[in-house]
Amino acid sequence: MSWRVGTVTTLRDETPTARTLVLQVSDWPGHAAGQHVDVRLTAADGYSATRSYSIASAADGERVEITVERLPDGEVSPYLTREAAVGDPLELLGPLGGWFVWRPGQPEPVQLVAGGSGLVPLMAMVRARERSGSGAPMRLLYSVRDPTAVLYRDELRRRAQQDRGLEVAYAYTRAAPEGWSRRPGRVDGLLLAEATWAPDRAPTCYVCGPTGFVEAVADLLLAAGHDPGRIRTERFGPTGGPR
Amino acid sequence: MGIISRGFTGRRRTSPDLPPGQYLTEDFPVLSAGPTPRVPTDRWEFTITTETGQVYRWDWSAFRALPAQEVTVDLHCVTRWSKLGTSWEGVSLDTLFADVETAAEYALAHSYGGYTTNLPVEDLLDGKAWVAYTYDGEDLAPEHGGPARLLVPRLYLWKSAKWVRGITLSHDDEPGFWETAGYHNYGDPWREQRYWDG
Fold first, then answer.
1. Distance, in angstroms, between A207 CA and closest chain B CA?
2. Which residues does chain A have within 8 Å of residue B180's beta carbon, measured at their own beta carbons?
3. How high is the pLDDT of residue A240?
4. Are residues A233 and B79, on separate chains, in Cβ contact within 8 Å?
5. Inter-chain residue contact B25 with A3, CB threshold 8 Å
6. What CA–CA distance (Å, rounded) separates A84 from A144?
7. Interface predicted TM-score (ipTM) of this complex, two decimals
8. What is the predicted pLDDT for the residue at B28?
């Protein structure tokens, strides 16, 4: 596997702290929904820094989209979300990861559970499902701090109405939209029972977010009776574990 | 050298102990493919199974009665973070292998929860690997692989199987979980062996 060069063709601000970079990558081999790429930045004196970013887009020729959340103490994310401009070349390696993926041939129901910017690889699955014409029923439970932090807000709203067999539910942890029925708070067993597939539907579950979120949700899914072999997790974040 | 990223300078927290392509972290990120198994120590056991099918078995109290070592090692995760100078307590694989009769070259570690990872037997012996049960002076937390995990700091951290329950020895090399999902069969951080064909 070798490094490729992509060209930034479009920048799209998703929230005040998250930006999507649309890249044109010559000879891109395609990818599965859920995979990621390593992005490498190189300074003029040769110093380089590399980080992994989930691919947000469904496979679409030479077009690859990543959505980057700016981390306050980040080294690469501030550059990608502030400095990178249309026309810039970006080096990337990938696609990477062969486990946290959804493939259109999977017939079973799909349960996606996203925490914050953990939505990104799950959004690739939502997009790939529609693009492939898959009939797999898919539910997304998206835990997010408040309405201003929602990624892909308009697209999610549109897809929830238009993509047949897709259902989207939100859990606001700090502040909910006006008139929202549930008090702000973390995903709990009650919400999980309301908004996700029951274990007897034997869904494959994809859980992505910060470590604490993923640990909590995976434990709730186990407690609800889901088969541990059907729960796939992807944890990320600068402050993954206990310090 | 790569293509220059216009205007990029970087943070440059580097160290001679940092393998290529890694960055330093003070945190201890968690990466695992599924839910965290909870294994009570009264139901825990560790086995070594040789190529002839002979099984060596330790329950928790027998395992903890073995001589332990305190080690300070650097951790390098294939997702590019490295954490230097981490402190562990565990039993050396040399101790566990002391009475094991084997001529096998390959080992497959397997874990509670179904995870597997493969490595050459020689990378387990001669002070290179431990079954560790404390981290930073505390019992090893479940999300970091407790009650006990394999610790093979010379290789990328996915080789240090969390929730380890046994090692199977063989003359044949059998790729484990990540090794069949695109990651390198050996995983030497200093040679940047991250990906299977890379």
1. 9
2. 98
3. 35
4. no
5. no
6. 26
7. 0.90
8. 76
- Give the total residue count for chain A: 243
Tell me if A100 and B35 make a contact (CB, 8 A cut-off): no
Share of chain A above pLDDT 70, in %: 97
Q: With an 8 Å Cβ cutoff, are A47 and B113 in contact?
A: no
pLDDT digits (tens, 9 = 90+) for A143-180: 999 999 999 999 999 999 999 999 999 999 999 999 99
Q: Phi and psi at residue A66, in whole multiples of 5°?
A: -120, 145
Mutate to test the interface with B, among A4, A5, A47, A221 (most CBs of B within 10 A): A47
pLDDT in tens, B94-141: 999 999 999 999 999 999 999 999 999 999 999 999 999 999 999 999
Using one digit for the tens of pLDDT, what is the confidence trace for A106-147?
Answer: 999 999 999 999 999 999 999 999 999 999 999 999 999 999
A113 contacts on B by Cβ (under 8 Å):
none
- Smallest CA-to-CA distance from A48 within A12, A90, A105, A85 is with A90
Contact B92, B129 (CB under 8 A): yes
A79–B8 CB contact, under 8 Å = yes
Closest B-chain CA to A2? B198
Chain B contact set for A222 (CB, 8 A): 35
Domains assigned to chain B: 57-191 (3.90.420.10)
Domains of chain A: 4-96 (2.40.30.10), 110-236 (3.40.50.80)
* A240 contacts B28? CB cut-off 8 A: yes
Return the axis-axis angle of helices A153-162 and A119-132, rounded to nearest 10°. 40
Tally of CB atoms within 10 A around B61: 10
List the end-to-end C-alpha distance of chain B, in Å, as a whole number: 17
How far does the CA of residue B57 sit from the closest CA of chain A (Å)? Answer: 26
Interface test with B, best of A5, A53, A79, A111 (most B CBs within 10 A): A79
